[in-house]
Design brief:
The protein is of the alpha+beta class. The chain contains 3 helices and 4 strands; from the N terminus they run αββαββα. β1 and β2 form a beta hairpin. It is globular and about 35 Å long.
Length: 97
Amino acid sequence: MACTLGTGDRARRAARWAALTARALRQASRTERGLRLVFGAGPGVEDELRSLAALERDCCAFARWSVTAADRRLTLEVSGDSEEAVAAAQALFPALM
């Protein structure tokens, strides 16, 4: 289970995630099937989170990327079905855990 992005694309994607988490991340935690990131619903946050999740579905197809909105919070759930997919999902954001 490896990232299919090239080095330059990976760096640009990581920069987008870093900017979003620095601006709006409220909580990060591991779950039984992967991880959960909770963001505050500020201006542009939902659009960027949904855009990034859609991009990740293409290059990290081993995981499910689900975004839900409720109570001025946005929750990203990244989960896998196999042991390897769960471990890979949990390793996606090492700086946050």
